[in-house]
Each structure stands twice: as structure tokens, then as C-alpha cells.
């Protein structure tokens, strides 16, 4: 049964956002509900359990479709590949206690969600809660809408007008009831809840079924062993989940109850706990260090904030915590294929059940009193064909890899992603703090006077900077503060200010006629400062740095002097804000000179302000216009020692590396070259895209960057000498695109069809905002790349979160977004993670193949014996299940990762020709050997179907006894005083010994070593286990101990037959090993077959690569394309990890 969206029955929730869902309306129907309750009782709860697993079935059967307005139950469905359903109950909230008259209605204007949510005259609000976020029914638009945030349609002036005086007490109460508390509510989950949730997992339910069946068959030992292992597994899982729950609770708990001061309209100030805050409240921030308990707009004054995330589920940190509480399922082929394979095993089991019933019926074994036994035998086939330990076995490789990563200082909060790391073929790196050292060192200052650059001032220098506008810019153009006697702020600002040898006198107060006494920062000459003609400078107002604007500005006043504005930021941005006559004519070449050497360059500018207008009344546009260009501050950012070797290792493994940074594009390109991302012989093509007036048209240009054309930069060879090499590089596809964030967004809007082509060879992405970083990662994923992201700051949170494998080099709160965190701030963790991921992935394949073959081998053996109404004995099953398979399952995964990354990846799917061929061939080998042994033993001259002692006489008993029964129930052999439970036969002994040792053979053959894991002989525990198990099996084959044989349901056979069985096993081992090594693991053979049959990869990027290699016009060097079409909106993709409510277009401020 599916969903057919009908009018008013269906809508979208969070459209265009990461957590977009479809929502369907339903109404509970009494008669349907009553029938379901009866079904629960008659099925002993099985139907209720099924509805627990499939909530959509629960809704479809219990309810009828209706409009969302009438619904009391809603069904939610994710819009990703998994289409996961969840069921939510609609609740009603009454606000009548706070609204006594019409004047009490909140927000009389129609555009407020609080006004639209209150139904009149009932004064009720209809709500649902989804993943900790509350949605209310908008009675005007007839849809559910998120509350808990300030609507983003308010302009700056509207925010001042409406909320500048604070909310009234009544408005606060209404909003508090509708929105709920301002907290990240992460309660510690009770153990009993975790226990029930874990026990109701389908895997454990199947185990419960298996255990009940085994108890019914007196297969007590293995049933108890499975119960013990299951309880241990449940205990460890619950313990781990409880530990994570406590850790997450502690992480957010301290932020949930902060005392804040709120301004109430006409009622003054009130102190309250932060969880009582509502959207629209006016906060008063006190002096000193404090935690900000929500996202907020600064409407008056100034404050300094760090990168720590805020509280409340509608904030950035709330989004991250919700992503931990409600993680997205991994869309990985291995897990999808595993489900299909499981279905195949279930189909095998169904065939086996039919075969069992037919065989017992046709052979006269289906008597009335034995029907129950036959049913048990048929059901037993399910537990044989579908091993209950299969899911657990698949996770062992991941668990061991996680432990090894932990020892190396790499921590993982999403273990399933370790397997995905084995498929990474593209890694994005942030630059500053990731590829380069975190700190910046001043290298030089290039001042400008009368539109000409002056002599460079180098750092460190014997003499200080001379007094002048440039000096003043360095002293005041920052957002530094003094906290507990230490200067705090951006490291770049700290370095810049320290170069002046001035100090911050944070205790000074500046008298402002308009605002009275306000707290302003004053900087004064320090003891080691050069002589200055002023007592100090007061910073009156700041326009903080913005990633979107790429600059910051301050308004400052010399004590007793004039007021000036100072601006610093990206040189190209600052130059555009300056009067043209103040910018040196060689500005671009000088900028290129330094950025091409990998320096970070900052532009400085200033202007004098007219007296009379208060600084706070000046707009940013007024301050940042008609500036005078002052010069360039040049800073050095060195590569980390391990950066180049790691990137070379990744390149040798054919793993693409991409730089995603907020820095200057020329600096980024040079760092990419120095780090080895761009080879010396490769060409760099700069892609510039610009929007035209009105943003309805755009242009895109491809320019080749040739450093040897910069006249004042290095003595390079003549252009003509390198041109043939460049042509060769372009002809072979060895070129790299570089673009800025602005160009990237323009291409995404206007040249969408070109974006995949540009990404295919895009290596440097500079001036990228946090949302653009996230968008870039997602666009790479659309090309079927497996993308890793490595970064160290909060700006990387979104990209770390959306990547297949996000690796944080910071242990700060930003690392909450990342599945992996490295204790050592070094990118050396990236190849380490890929190595372990590849090893874990190969281990998963090995374990899956082994568990599949083990179950099929046992399945085939049992079906063969069913032909004679026989089966394996309990101890025979126990030996295979516990002593062989369980021990192998635990130890096979001990093999460590291979130290070298080879230039290809392990397969990512189970349903692939090599793996399927391996499984099918080994099944045929096992089937052939078991049938051969089963048939040939019956042709032996000593064989007797009724006398199990015909082959050889016991040492202690020379009497023959032919009273052995082959029925379902055993009879006592009086002569031998031994119990024959009906399992003993020559066929049983032969098939069991062959199948048991065959399990050891496939374990050895499937234990793949190089090139992704170390050779199997390095796994000493596993090798010792195999040798020990083989020794026990051979002992059982040749022992001739009556008591042991009786216990194991074995019978004595001639030595020649035992040697024959060893021969069969040796042939099987040789053939299986030869096929595995010469065919299955023969990579050149499979590549040849692909070429012969013209097989092409289905990956989007591979197909696109193939097409571009055949396109002589690509890339179009020194050409410009125009787009006059309406821009394609990709806003949903560009948002990344940000709070949409407070994302503002700062260019329009």
C-alpha cells in the first residue's frame, strides 16, 4: 500500500532544507482500531511488533485518509533514498489562560505565525513535535510551520520598532506556551527503555525464535550459548548507548539554565533562566564573560563572541545535537546488498522447508504422531540457512578497526562510517590550521602613499613602524578585547596589534554625547612603542568582520583629536571601496606577486569622518566608501610538516585532493602547488563568473594562470620554452580549475550544466563561505564521489556533517558535527582512516562470504541427510556452530590494515561478479564434495544401511548389533549399552566430517590479505585457531574412541575411507584456493574482461570524464560565455549548516 498525495492530504515539511519531509494526514477510526486490538491479542503481540517495525502499516490499517487540517495522526516520510516513515500524534495547546480580551491577542499584524496559529474562538493551537522541533498549524496557509525562531521576514527597522522595547508579559507567556522551552532537551534515556528498544530489534527477535526452536529440539547447549552471547551483546550495546546519552546530556546541560536579563515592555528588567526565553525577547548582556543561550541579533552596543555554538534546538548546535540523536541512515551499497543477500538465504530456506516436508512425506516418515517433529525439522532449516549470528559477524571488523583507530588518537561517533571510509576517492581540505600552521606570522608591510607603493617594512625589524595612518590602522582595526589580563580575539588581529607595541586599556570609558557613558576600547602606546604624538586612540564603533563582505571596519578617535574610519580585509575588496586615485596602478601585480608565493595578504584603508554625526548613527555603507588606500599587510602561513607527504600518499593512491578555503585564491593556489595538490607541470585555469545587473544574466570566463608572465616575480624561463609542455598537459587532461566562492555560486545559479564539468577538475575553491563549503561537498557527492572532509573550525561544521566521512582536527564543540575527530591536529589521520576503512570493508566482505558459505555448507549437509530421514546430532551442530564458526568469526577480523594505500579501492557491493562467482563456485565445490562422499560411501563393500558396526569392530566389543534404527527416535543398543539417537550412520559421519573441515577451508581461502589487509599469517591468533580446529577435526576422524564417537554421533569407518575423505578435502582446498587466487583475486583478468566486453563504470564522474577526454574544445581557454536566462535557484543546496532565520544578505545592509 502506498501514498497517493491528494489535495489537502499531503504537504511538505521543511521544504528545501536538509531535514525535508513529506507529511500525510489521517484520522483514527474506532472500528479499525478495535479490530487491530483484537489482532494484537490473537497474534500474541506479533501484529503489534510488526506495526512497531512498520509504523506506516499501523497508520494505514488503523486510520483513514483525511486533510491535514482534520488529522489527529500524521505520517511523515523522509525524501531521501530510504523513504523512512514515522508516526506522530497531533496535540492541542490552549492559550485561553493568557487571552481574556481582543487586546490580549499577540501580534495583531497578520504576518505573525503566533497570530495565525491561534484558532478563534477556541484559542487552541494545533501542534506536532518532530525530532525535538515543534510545528504549529498555520490556519491561514493551511500547513504546519516551525516555531521557536524569529520570523526571517522582519527588516532591521522592523526588528527595532517591534521588539526594541521588549515583549509584554502576556506576549511572552503566549509565545512560551506555543514554542516550548528554549533548551536542548537531551534527557538520559532510562536503561529499561534502551533495553526494550534493543530487544525488539528484528535480529534479536529472530534469535528468540531460533532459541525457542532449539530448546524444543533439546539443542540446549548451543541455545544457551546463543542466549549468553546475545545477552552480552545487548548489555554492551545498552551500556554504550547509555554512556553516549549521559555524555550528550552533560554536553548541553550546562547551557540550558543560564541566568539572563530580559527587558519587558513597560515593566522594566527581569532576571530569569534562559529556558524561559521566547523568540522576540530583548536580552541585556552584562559586562564580562557569559554564555549566550540562543541565536540573537545585536540591536545596540557591541560584544565579542567566539565560535562556540548556541543552545536551543533551532540553533546551529541544536541542529548538530539533533543529527546525533536522529542520525541519517548510511546509504551504502554494502548494507543494501546485504539485505538482498539475506532475502536470497530466506528463499533458500523456504525451498529447504518444502523439500523437508516432501521428503518425509514420500518416505513414510510423516506419521500422525510425528507431525510436530517434522514441522520442527522444517523450521530448523530456516535457522540453518539464515545464521542468527550473521549481523553480529559483519560488525566485528568495524569494532576492531574502531579500537585500532582509538589507539591512534582517532575517535569515532558513527562506527558504520568506518566501512564508508574504505571507499573514499576524494578528500576536501580546509587550508588554515589544516594544511598550514594555525598561526600567522607577520612577514612585511607594504605601505602606499600618493597612489604609489613605498619600501617594504619587514618583520621582525630593528626599528618600529613609523607613526602614520598605517600604524593607526594596525592599532585600532580589530575586535580584540582584554580578558583576565590577556588579549583575546582573532589570531591575525593579535599578531597585527602586537606589531605596534601598543596596549589595550580596556578599563577606560569614553563619553558620548548621544548615548551617555558607554564602554569603549582605548589603545595606548606601550613601554616599547615608538614615539607617538597622541595619548591614545578610542575605538568608538565596530562593523565586525563578515565572511560574506570579506572585511571589517572601525570608527576611532584620537584622544582630543579627529574621528577616522579604518577598514581591513581582502585586498581586492578593500581596493574596490577606495577612491581610484589612491590605489597604486601596479596594485594587481603586487598583490599577485605576494599571493603567488603563498603569503596571506590583507588590504588596509582609512578615511576622515565629518564631525557632528554620532558614530553609531553612521551606516556601514557610509563608512566603507570613498576610502584612502593605505597598503598591504603581508602574513606568512607555513605548511605543516606532514602536509606534503600525506597529500603525496593520497595522490599515489589515486585519491583526489581538493582545497576548500576562505582565503585569497592566489594564496590558495600557491599553497596547493607547494603542498603537491597541483603538480609543477600541470596547468591552473582560473574560472571567473560574474552576475550582471539584476542577477538575471551572468558571464563566465576561463583564464590560464602563468606565473612566468609576472615581470617582477622570480626569474623564470621564457614563455615559448614552456608552451609545448603546457599544451601536452592540457591535451592529457592534466589541468586544474580554481574559482572563488562568488564564482562558484554564480556558476551554480546560471551555468548549472557546467558545474559537473568544472568540479571534475576543480582543485582550488577559495573565498568559500561555510554554506558554500557544504554545497560543494554535496555537489561532489552527486557526481558519485565518496567524499571526505577534513577541517578544524566551526566554519567547516556543515561540510564535515554532510561528507561521507567528516574528520575534525579540533576537539572543540565544532567536532560534534564530525563522525571522526583526531586528537592530533594533523592530516596524517586521513590516510590512516582510509587504510582502516579499507581493511574493515574487506573484513566485512570476508565475513559475509564465510558466514554465507558456512550456512550453505551446513544447509546442504542437512538436506542430504534428510533424504534418508536423518540429520546431524546436537553435538555435531554444536561443534560446527560454536567451536568452529563462532571462534573463526571472532578471530578472522583481527587482521590489521595493510600499511600502503594501493591505487584502487576494494569493491563496495556484495552483488558484484567476482564476489558472486566466488560464493557460487565454492558452493558448487562443497556440494560436489558432499554429494560425492554421500554417494561413494554407499558403494563401499563394508557399507550397511542397517548395521552401523559393519565397517570395523570396536576394540572393547566384538559383537555385532543390527538393531540400529534410522527413524526419528533413537533406541537403546543393549549389547553396547550405548544410546543410538537415530543420527548415527555412515552417511552422517562422512557428510559431517567433510562439511566441518570444509568450513575451515573456506575460512582460510576467504581470509584475504594484501593489498588491503596484512598477510593472513600475521594474524597469529587466527592461524593458531585454524590449526587447533583442524587438529581436533582430524583427531575426531581418526580417533576410534567409543565414548567420544557415541557422544558425537559418529561411527567407525575403515582407515582407507578416512584417508579418502582427507583426499577429497585436499582436492577441494587446492581447487578452491587456486580459483580464488587465479580468478577471483586476479585484478588484471577482470580489467581485461571489462575491456573486452566494453564495460564502463556507472559512476557519473567516470562517464563525464570519458566524454570530456573526447571533447577537443574543453576546457575553453580565454573564452567568455554569457547567460541571459533566469537564474536557476540552488538556495537549498547553498545553505549548508546555517541558521536560516538569521542568514542575512549583508550586501544590502
TrEMBL record:
GO molecular function, one term: ATPase-coupled monoatomic cation transmembrane transporter activity
Known catalytic reactions: ATP + H2O = ADP + phosphate + H(+)
Alphabetized PROSITE patterns for the sequence: ATPASE_E1_E2 (PS00154)
Localization in the cell: Membrane
Top-level class of the enzyme under EC nomenclature: translocase
Gene Ontology cellular component annotations, sorted alphabetically: endoplasmic reticulum membrane; late endosome membrane
E.C. designation(s): 7.2.2.-
Highest rank taxon of the organism: Eukaryota
GO annotation, biological process: intracellular calcium ion homeostasis
Primary location group: membrane
Family in the record: Belongs to the cation transport ATPase (P-type) (TC 3.A.3) family. Type V subfamily.
Protein name (Swiss-Prot/TrEMBL): Cation-transporting ATPase
Amino acid at each position: 500500500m502506498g501514498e497517493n498525495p491528494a489535495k489537502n492530504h499531503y504537504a511538505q515539511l521543511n521544504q528545501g532544507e536538509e531535514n525535508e519531509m513529506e507529511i500525510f494526514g489521517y484520522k483514527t477510526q474506532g472500528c479499525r482500531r478495535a479490530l487491530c486490538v483484537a489482532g494484537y491479542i490473537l497474534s500474541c503481540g506479533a501484529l503489534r511488533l510488526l506495526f512497531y517495525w512498520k509504523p506506516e502499516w499501523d497508520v494505514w490499517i488503523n486510520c483513514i485518509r483525511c486533510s491535514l487540517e482534520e488529522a489527529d495522526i500524521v505520517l511523515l516520510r523522509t525524501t531521501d533514498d530510504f523513504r523512512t516513515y514515522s508516526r506522530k500524534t497531533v496535540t492541542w495547546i490552549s492559550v485561553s489562560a493568557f487571552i481574556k480580551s481582543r487586546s490580549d491577542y499577540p501580534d495583531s499584524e497578520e504576518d505573525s505565525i503566533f497570530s495565525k496559529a491561534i484558532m478563534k474562538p477556541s484559542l487552541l493551537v494545533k501542534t506536532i513535535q518532530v525530532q525535538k522541533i515543534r510545528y504549529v498549524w498555520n490556519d491561514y496557509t493551511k500547513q504546519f510551520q516551525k516555531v521557536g525562531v524569529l520570523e526571517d521576514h522582519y527588516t532591521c527597522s522592523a526588528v527595532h520598532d517591534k521588539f526594541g522595547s521588549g515583549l509584554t508579559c502576556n506576549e511572552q507567556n503566549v509565545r512560551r506556551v506555543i514554542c516550548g522551552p528554549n533548551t536542548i532537551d537531551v534527557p538520559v534515556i532510562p536503561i529499561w527503555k534502551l533495553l526494550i528498544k534493543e530487544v525488539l530489534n528484528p535480529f534479536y527477535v529472530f534469535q528468540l525464535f531460533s532459541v525457542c526452536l532449539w530448546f524444543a529440539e533439546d539443542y540446549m547447549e548451543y541455545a544457551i550459548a546463543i542466549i549468553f552471547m546475545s545477552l552480552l551483546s545487548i548489555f554492551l550495546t545498552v551500556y554504550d548507548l547509555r554512556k553516549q546519552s549521559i555524555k550528550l546530556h552533560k554536553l548541553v546541560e550546562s547551557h540550558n539554565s543560564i541566568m539572563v536579563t530580559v527587558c519587558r515592555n513597560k515593566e522594566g528588567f527581569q532576571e530569569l533562566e534562559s529556558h524561559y526565553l521566547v523568540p522576540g525577547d530583548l536580552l541585556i548582556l552584562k559586562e564580562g564573560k557569559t554564555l549566550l543561550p540562543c541565536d540573537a541579533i545585536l540591536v545596540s552596543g557591541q560584544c565579542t563572541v567566539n565560535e562556540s555554538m548556541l543552545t536551543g534546538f533551532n540553533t546551529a548546535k541544536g541542529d548538530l545535537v539533533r543529527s546525533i540523536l536522529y542520525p541519517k541512515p548510511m546509504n551504502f551499497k554494502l548494507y543494501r546488498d546485504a539485505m538482498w543477500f539475506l532475502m536470497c538465504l530466506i528463499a533458500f530456506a523456504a525451498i529447504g522447508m518444502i523439500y523437508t516436508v516432501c521428503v518425509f512425506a514420500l518416505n513414510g516418515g510423516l506419521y500422525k504422531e510425528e507431525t510436530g517433529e517434522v514441522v520442527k525439522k522444517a523450521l530448523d532449516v530456516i535457522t540453518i540457512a539464515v545464521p542468527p549470528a550473521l549481523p553480529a559477524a559483519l560488525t566485528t571488523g568495524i569494532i576492531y578497526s574502531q579500537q585500532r583507530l582509538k589507539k591512534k588518537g582517532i575517535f569515532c561517533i558513527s562506527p558504520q562510517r568506518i566501512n564508508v571510509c574504505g571507499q573514499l576517492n576524494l578528500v576536501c581540505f580546509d587550508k588554515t590550521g589544516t594544511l598550514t600552521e594555525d598561526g600567522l606570522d607577520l612577514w612585511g608591510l607594504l605601505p602606499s602613499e600618493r597612489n604609489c607603493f613605498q619600501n617594504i617594512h619587514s618583520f621582525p625589524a630593528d626599528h618600529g613602524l613609523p607613526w602614520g595612518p598605517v600604524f593607526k590602522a594596525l592599532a585600532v582595526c580589530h575586535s580584540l578585547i582584554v580578558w583576565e589580563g590577556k588579549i583575546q580575539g582573532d589570531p591575525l588581529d593579535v599578531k597585527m596589534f602586537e606589531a605596534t607595541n601598543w596596549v589595550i586599556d580596556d578599563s577606560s570609558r569614553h563619553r558620548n554625547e548621544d548615548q551617555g557613558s558607554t564602554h569603549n576600547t582605548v589603545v595606548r602606546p606601550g613601554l616599547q612603542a615608538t614615539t607617538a604624538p597622541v595619548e591614545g586612540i578610542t575605538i568608538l564603533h565596530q562593523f565586525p568582520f563578515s565572511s560574506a563582505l570579506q572585511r571589517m571596519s572601525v570608527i576611532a578617535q584620537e584622544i582630543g583629536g579627529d574621528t577616522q574610519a579604518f577598514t581591513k580585509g581582502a585586498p581586492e575588496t578593500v581596493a574596490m571601496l577606495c577612491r581610484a586615485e589612491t590605489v597604486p596602478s601596479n596594485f594587481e601585480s603586487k598583490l599577485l606577486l605576494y599571493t603567488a608565493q603563498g603569503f596571506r595578504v590583507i588590504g588596509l584603508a582609512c578615511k576622515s569622518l565629518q564631525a557632528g554625526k554620532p558614530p553609531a548613527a553612521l551606516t556601514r555603507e557610509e563608512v566603507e566608501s570613498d576610502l584612502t588606500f593605505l597598503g598591504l599587510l603581508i602574513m606568512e602561513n607555513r605548511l605543516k610538516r606532514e602536509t606534503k607527504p600525506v597529500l603525496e600518499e593520497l595522490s599515489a593512491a589515486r585519491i583526489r585532493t581538493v582545497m576548500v578555503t576562505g582565503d585569497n585564491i592566489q594564496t590558495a593556489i600557491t599553497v596547493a602547488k607547494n603542498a603537491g595538490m597541483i603538480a609543477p607541470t600541470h596547468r591552473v585555469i582560473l574560472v571567473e563568473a560574474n552576475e550582471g545587473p539584476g542577477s538575471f544574466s551572468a558571464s563566465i570566463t576561463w583564464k590560464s594562470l602563468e606565473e612566468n608572465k609576472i615581470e617582477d616575480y622570480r626569474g623564470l624561463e621564457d614563455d615559448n620554452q614552456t608552451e609545448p609542455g603546457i599544451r601536452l598537459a592540457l591535451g592529457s587532461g592534466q589541468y586544474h580549475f580554481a574559482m572563488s566562492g562568488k564564482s562558484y555560486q554564480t556558476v551554480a545559479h546560471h551555468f548549472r550544466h557546467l558545474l559537473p564539468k568544472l568540479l571534475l577538475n576543480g582543485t582550488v575553491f577559495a573565498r568559500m563561505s561555510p554554506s558554500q563549503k557544504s554545497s560543494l561537498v554535496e555537489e561532489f557527492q552527486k557526481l558519485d564521489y565518496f567524499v571526505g572532509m577534513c577541517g578544524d573550525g566551526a566554519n567547516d561544521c556543515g561540510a564535515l556533517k554532510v561528507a561521507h566521512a567528516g574528520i575534525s582536527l579540533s576537539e572543540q564543540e565544532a567536532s560534534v558535527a564530525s563522525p571522526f575527530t583526531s586528537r592530533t591536529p594533523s592530516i596524517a589521520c586521513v590516510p590512516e582512516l582510509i587504510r582502516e576503512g579499507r581493511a574493515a570493508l574487506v573484513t566485512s566482505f570476508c565475513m559475509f562470504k564465510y558466514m554465507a558459505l558456512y550456512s550453505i555448507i551446513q544447509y546442504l549437509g542437512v538436506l542430504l541427510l534428510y533424504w534418508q530421514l536423518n540429520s546431524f546430532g546436537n553435538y555435531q551442530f554444536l561443534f560446527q556452530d560454536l567451536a568452529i564458526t563462532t571462534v573463526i568469526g571472532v578471530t578472522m577480523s583481527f587482521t590489521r590494515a595493510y600499511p600502503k594505500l594501493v591505487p584502487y579501492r576494494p569493491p563496495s557491493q556484495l552483488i558484484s561478479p567476482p564476489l558472486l562467482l566466488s560464493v557460487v563456485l565454492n558452493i558448487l565445490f562443497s556440494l560436489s564434495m558432499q554429494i560425492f562422499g554421500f554417494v561413494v560411501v554407499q558403494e563401499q563393500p563394508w557399507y550397511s544401511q542397517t548395521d552401523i558396526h559393519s565397517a570395523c569392530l570396536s576394540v572393547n566389543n566384538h559383537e555385532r548389533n543390527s538393531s540400529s534404527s534410522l527413524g526419528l527416535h533413537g533406541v537403546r543398543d543393549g549389547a553396547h549399552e550405548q544410546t543410538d539417537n537415530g543420527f548415527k550412520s555412515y552417511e552422517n559421519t562422512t557428510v559431517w566430517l567433510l562439511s566441518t573441515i570444509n568450513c575451515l577451508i573456506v575460512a582460510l581461502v576467504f581470509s584475504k590479505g594484501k593489498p588491503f589487509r596484512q598477510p593472513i599469517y600475521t594474524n597469529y591468533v587466527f592461524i593458531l585457531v585454524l590449526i587447533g580446529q583442524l587438529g581436533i577435526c582430524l583427531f575426531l576422524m581418526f580417533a576410534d574412541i567409543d565414548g567420544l564417537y557415541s557422544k558425537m554421533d559418529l561411527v567407525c569407518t575403515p582407515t582407507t575411507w578416512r584417508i579418502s575423505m582427507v583426499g577429497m578435502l585436499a582436492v577441494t582446498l587446492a581447487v578452491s584456493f587456486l580459483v580464488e587466487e587465479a580468478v577471483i583475486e586476479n585484478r588484471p583478468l577482470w580489467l581485461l574482461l571489462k575491456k573486452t566486453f566494453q564495460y564502463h563504470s556507472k559512476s557519473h564522474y567516470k562517464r563525464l570524464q570519458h566524454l570530456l577526454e573526447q571533447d577537443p574544445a574543453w576546457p575553453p581557454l580565454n573564452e567568455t560565455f554569457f547567460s541571459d536566462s533566469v537564474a536557476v535557484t540552488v538556495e537549498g543546496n547553498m545553505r549548508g549548516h546555517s541558521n536560516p532565520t538569521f542568514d542575512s544578505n549583508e550586501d544590502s545592509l
